[in-house]
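Q: Can I see a sequence and its folded structure?
A: Here is a first one.
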Amino acid sequence: MAEEKKGKVVLASGAFDLLHYGHVYYLTEAKKAGGENAKLVVIVAKDKTVEKLKGNKPIIPEDQRRAVVESLKVVDEAILGYEDMDMLRVIEKVKPDIIALGYDEERIERDLKKLLEEKKINIKVVRINQFTEKDLVSSSKIKRKIIENYHANVT
């Protein structure tokens, strides 16, 4: 029997509040970055981390956001992040070959590459291009649309 070739481990992360197609696109492209037989592990930000980074609490609780992300066909495993956002701890736990970042994570990319260089860790960092459809591909756009529709129906 032929031995199955072990694929690369790709690490992706995010808040994933109000899951939408932009998230699915990001995760699908992240897994593709690992090539054939890649395993996609997703770090889902804890509620306190989301609040600290985005200035408000997520609508969906962390355990539910993690479960929904893990239920996506493209995701092999979803785990909650650490409140201290310690990337070294995450790297030690997941042991990724590739870390896939979102299109808007320039600062995180710089900090991560600097950390990897300082610690002499050989992990490829890639940024996933933005999904270009102008529809509801961000949680904030979805929230605005809900508010607009609510106000239109109330008046």
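Q: Show me another, different protein.
A: A second, unrelated one:
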Amino acid sequence: MNIGIVCYPTFGGSGVIATELAKGLARRDHQVHILSYAKPARLDTFQTNISYHEVNLQSYPLFEYPPYDLALANQMANLISYEGIDILHVHYAIPHATSAYLAKQILGEQAAHVPIITTLHGTDITVVGSDPSYKSVVDFSINQSDGVTAVSEYLRKETYERFDIEKEISVIPNFIDLERFKRTNKEHFRKAISPEDEKIIVHVSNFREVKRVPDVVTMFAYILEHGIKAKLLLVGDGPDRNRAEQRCRELGICDQVRFLGKQEQVEEVLSIADLFVIPSGSETFGLAALEAMGCGVPVISSNIGGLPEVNIHGETGYLCDLGDTDAMGKYGVEILSDPKKHKRMSMKARKNAEKFDMDKMVSEYENYYKKIQSELMEHRN
């Protein structure tokens, strides 16, 4: 198949999954065209069968903000016309699904055979899409898609509750490359971080307020207060970094906390981790948690959104009420002070991560593409 994939290029889950899906499809000899306003973060090496198309935005005095959705629709129309796209798979409802609909309307019968598949990832539904300014557009764009998928059962349910959706939404979970996200020997790295064999706790996010990074610091202080020698590694960057740094100063634990910034090879950090913490206030899946579990790291997370579909309470780690840093700290002490429990949870974390193997999910997308193509053909006939 000749597949167009549209995504945001950032470190967020939607861009990561879209890019990894493109790589998986390309390895199966599909031709993949990635469309975005910048090169996706995970598209870091040349790969046969993948072409990248940048959406160029021109600045005009008339526009305070250049109309990205229109430029995107124009580029989509070009892909269909000149690259012979068979499938247009857009990640994130707005503006991608809206632009895809417009592109097909521009081309008319020339694009009638090309199905639009929209994958919902989270904030396009729970945050951006819930803004009354966008609701009607989101309703329309999803309903006009030929196929719709969501990355978790939680997100599927939320979409139906928040919007007037007539389309069937299929759940195809997020996934990871288990060959990349597996525990490897990084003993030299570990000794540099914890020269006295301190336990290593890791958090990875984009440091937005919803990720509640200061809660990670508070939970870490609890662990230190209860006799566990440990280091905290905070991977990522964003608007809440200053608040997290301030919390470290208030608690007097700056010497035990390292801010590593954005890391391309996050699996190297996860390979030395003893515990992963994700206390998010909103998480429609929890890809960061899954990547940690792939590396055999037990997870402590908030009990919200799609996280319970990934992190199994009492098996791969623990779920806690939102904001309950004492409970998170208590569970952290329990895991880190009991080697047998830690080993058992580590093994179960990896085992559960294997359910979300990339090859399996790429196959699910392939089958879904064929299903939607067949349904569109039947409808046209």
